[in-house]
Each structure stands twice: as structure tokens, then as C-alpha cells.
Amino acid sequence: MAGVSELDVDQRAVVESLRAAVRASGLTQQDFARAVGTSPSRLSAYLHGDTAPSARLLVKFQRIGTALHAARQEGVPTALDAGTSLRRALEVSTRPSGVLRFALEARDRLRDTLENRPHLIDAWDAKPMVGEERWGTLLAVLVAHEFTAAGRSAPWWTSVDPLAVAWFPARGRLSEGQVREVTPEWLAVANIWLAASALEVA
Question: Please, are residues 139 and 190 in contact by the beta-carbon 8 Å criterion?
Fold first, then answer.
């Protein structure tokens, strides 16, 4: 393993840029790796100069690290905060409707960022860790929908496969058939069935 001092000037610049991005993010090295979509071992190799990221990856890491720092400084929630909220809700809530409220709150905060704080939107490119497939898929689909509605490209992590088994997060008094009839198409394609009315209020 090469020491940073043994690298040439360009390699050192890349390593320092990466280290600065991790520091700015406020995340641990392991959490930063997950947030940007690489493995902890690969990120470690980048940070030690053992291998170099592509220019595209370097820019991505810098962009996300800088945006997370800015969002934290302004007290604006990000996808990472949404993931944390959902994990905590899943630990304490006995009703899916209670967890759904947190997912919709995250959506509303994203909507506010898209409308009023566009300079912070890159912070939503950091992948959240929900820890439960169905709720993680729902969050991804909600975020992708908001970005698309705002005329923006959705974050990379929102590209998810449909659930293998149909899921009804909050059916209320409706039958499954009735819920299917009033579920928006952008949710249905993910095999998530939720009445449009349930999405109106966080």
C-alpha cells in the first residue's frame, strides 16, 4: 500500500480531494461509501492512493460531500435523514400508517428543498439506509416522483426493482381491489398499492 507522501503531486491532489469530501459530508468513511454507492474497501483504496477513481466518480464524491455539508449547515433534512427517521419509526411503530407519516414528511421536506433551496438538492443524491426493503422502495419511489415532477433527473439510488409481493402499506377501510383502483401508476409499477388520498397529508 502506497503512503500518501509517496504519491506524485496529481495523485496526492486526488486523495486530498476525496478526503476533504468525506470530511465535509460529516459521515464515517463506511457510511460515506454506502451513501455514494461504492464499497468501503473500494473507497479505502481511493483514499490511500492505491487506485484512482474516474473523473466522474471524483466529481460525484465531491459534489455529494459538499452538498451534505451545506445542508447540515442550513439545517435542511436530506435523504439520509429520511432513512434515519424511517428506521426509527420502524423500531417503535406498531402500525404501518405511523411509519407512512414519516415517509410523507420526508417527501414534503424534499418538495420544499426542490422549490425553495435548489442549491442543496445534490444532498439528496446520497443514498439513505432504511433497512427494510418495502419501506426503502417506497422512499425511493416517492423521491423519484418528486424529482420527476420538478423536471429534474431522479437520484441514482431511486432506480429500484418492483417488490416481488404486492404491498398495501395503509389500506384503511378499502378492500385491496379498491386500493388498486385508486393507486397512482407511479406507485403501482413498484407493486406498492396506496390510495392517492393517503398521499395528500403527511
Answer: no
**Tens of each residue's pLDDT in the chain, 202 residues:** 555 556 688 888 999 999 999 999 999 999 999 999 999 999 999 999 999 999 999 999 999 999 999 999 999 999 999 999 999 999 998 788 889 999 999 999 999 999 999 999 999 999 999 999 999 999 999 999 999 999 999 999 999 999 999 999 988 889 999 999 999 999 999 999 999 999 986 5
Q: Beta-carbon neighbour count of residue 115 at 10 Å?
A: 9
Measured between alpha carbons, how far is 185 from 139 in angstroms, rounded to an integer? Answer: 16
Q: Are 142 and 106 in contact (CB under 8 A)?
A: yes
What is the phi-psi region of residue 77: left when phi exceeds 0, alpha when psi lies from -120 to 50, beta otherwise?
beta
**Per-position DSSP letters for 10-66, written without gaps between them:** HHHHHHHHHHHHHHHHT--HHHHHHHHTS-HHHHHHHHTTSS---HHHHHHHHHHHH
Is the Cα dihedral 15, 16, 18, 22 positive or negative?
A: positive
Residue 84: C-alpha distances to residues 66, 80, 105, 140, 179 (Å): 20, 6, 13, 14, 28
Written as one letter, the residue type at 188 is A
| C-beta separation of 69 from 86 below 8 A | no
How many other CB atoms are found less than 10 A from the CB of residue 64?
A: 26
198 is written with which cell numbers?
393517503
